Amino acid sequence: MAVALRRLSSSIHKPPHFPSAASLYSTWIKQLNEPLEVIDPEITDIIELEKARQWKGLELIPSENFTSLSVMQAVGSVMTNKYSEGYPGARYYGGNEYIDMAETLCQKRALEAFGLDPAKWGVNVQSLSGSPSNFQVYTALLKPHERIMALDLPHGGHLSHGYQTDTKKISAVSIFFETMPYRLNESTGYIDYDQLEKSAALFRPKLIVAGASAYARLYDYARIRKVCDKQKAVLLADIAHISGLVAAGVIPSPFDYADVVTTTTHKSLRGPRGAMIFFRKGVKEINKQGQEAMTPEFKHYQQQVLSNSSTFAQSLLEKGYELVSGGTDNHLVLVNLRNKGIDGSRVEKVLESVHIAANKNTVPGDVSAMVPGGIRMGTPALTSRGFAEEDFKKVAEFFDEAVKLALQIKANAQGTKLKDFVAALQSDAHIQSEIAKLRHEVEEYAKQFPTIGFEVETMKYSK
Ligand code: DSN
After folding, report:
1. I want to staple 299 with a disulfide (CB 3.0 to 4.6 A). Which of 100, 118, 242, 248 is the partner?
2. Domains 114-291 and 297-458 share a fold
3. Alpha-carbon torsion 387, 440, 344, 163, what sign?
4. Which residue CA neighbors atom 4 of ligand 1 most closely?
5. 145 dihedral zone (left: phi>0; alpha: psi -120 to 50; beta)
6. Quick one: which of 237, 239, 246, 241 has its CA closest to 209?
7. Active-site residue numbers?
8. Is the sign of the CA dihedral 94, 99, 100, 101 positive or negative?
9. Bridge partner residues of 276 (DSSP)
């Protein structure tokens, strides 16, 4: 629209060829129907660069994935033009008959994907992302300042579960509600359910969250349900990371235990960017039918995600890396780098420079979230591109080479700050050539695998 207005105004300011209203209108309509590459070459070019990044790099951020072309087509349509406050059949604005059809179909498919009986479970599919969906649950079910318990952020939890430090309320959730963490048993790396139960008896929460963003093990929902029953608390399962695995039935489901379940739709579920809130109603039979997420192909994909994750963990252990909890039962690994003499921030910088996307992450015992001791990596995205077990052994080798480079850079750095490390990374000629070499190897490896949602042949930056 801004471009159309600018062109319109520049044509208005060019007398004596002041166009007639009819020709202005036809120019306007033509511009509104022009494709993106004609209207906005700058944005088009950035999208092309991002395509190349996705194709040539190794995507190991466990919350990311490659959604399908069909999903991209569905979310980029005229449906974006409509306001639709309310629910299907009960909207504030008129003209929502097709939005209602789409939303009702989406709700039906969401319930089917998790094998849920619509008489027993309802679902809200309007949330834009995971954090808002959690906040919507808290505000719907709790009064301001009622109490929430959740896994501590430095132990694998998520900001939207109410993180605060001893001195500062970091998440807005901890401003509007009173929050108390439960934690891992630091010697095993597994959730300390006994301590959770003791804390809950003292804190008496109104809601307990079972969910994580950096926990490589499975949740014991039955155990937390018992604590909730004792405290008369709501059990909210946040399965954002693992919902694809749950939908495929390859890891245990929380639906038998939870009162409410939230999930994003774009992580292991591999759908469009968004979130859903499932809420328990009555008790009826389970509907066994399913849609895309219930297909044999989707189940096979999720099994491969788990198998790749297990192989990746094993390869890292064999190379002397320490994993929080000692391994993985799901789609991610959390590497504790302390025994290697390096931290997550420095390794993340080197990984990025060799075109491997992963993220620094706190591990138990960390005091800083800015320079944490760990790296979090997951298998959903690369599994979507067809990576199998042997490929993840290779990814572990690339990771190991990057960590070795990070150690060299750290040794060469002029000071102990992260900025000294970055300066050494960017200025040392030998390091630059080692990085270029590894980046080339990584890209040549990644480029063998198909892209998702676009063709290499049509890419501007495929070389
Ligand atoms: N950003 C997601 C993650 O990386 O875990 C959750 O917020």
Report:
1. 248
2. no
3. negative
4. 63
5. left
6. 237
7. 83, 85, 238, 264, 267, 273
8. positive
9. 263
**Which stretches does DSSP call E strand in 228-348?**
234-238, 260-264, 275-280, 322-323, 332-336
Which tokens is 9 given?
């105004």
User: What's the CA-to-centroid distance between 364 and ligand 1, angstroms?
Assistant: 18
CA of 212 to the centre of ligand 1 (A): 9
User: What ligand 1 atom has the least distance to the C-alpha of 131?
Assistant: 7
Nearest ligand 1 atom to alpha carbon 159? 7
What percentage of the chain reaches a pLDDT higher than 90?
86
Q: Enumerate the domain spans of the chain.
A: 114-291, 297-458
As given in the structure block, the two tokens for residue 55 are: 């194709």
pTM: 0.90
Per residue in 23-74, pLDDT (tens digit) is 877 887 888 899 999 999 999 999 999 999 999 999 999 999 999 999 999 9
Q: How far is CA 70 from the centre of its chain?
A: 20
Dihedral pair phi/psi, residue 99, rounded to 5°: -65, -40
Count, residues in the chain: 463
Residue 206 · residue 147 · CB < 8 Å: yes
Torsion sign across C-alpha atoms 293, 138, 221, 360: positive
Q: How far is CA 313 from the centre of its chain?
A: 20
What atom of ligand 1 comes closest to residue 214's alpha carbon?
5
**How far is Cα of residue 287 from the mean position of the Cα atoms in its chain?**
28
Tokens read off for 463: 């070389």
Residues with CB under 6 A from ligand 1: 63, 130, 158, 213
CATH code of the domain made up of 297-458: 3.90.1150.10
Higher pLDDT, 3 or 151: 151
Tracing tokens 């619509």 back to the chain, one arrives at: 118
Strand partners, 200: none
- State the chain's mean pLDDT as an integer: 93
- Helix crossing, 41-56 with 429-446: angle to 10°? 90
Are 393 and 385 in contact, with CB atoms under 8 Å apart?
no
Q: Is the pLDDT of residue 129 over 80?
A: yes
Overall fold of domain 114-291: Aspartate Aminotransferase; domain 2 (3.40.640)
Look at ligand 1, atom 5, and give the residue with the nearest C-alpha. Answer: 213
Find out whether 363 and 336 touch, Cβ atoms under 8 Å. yes
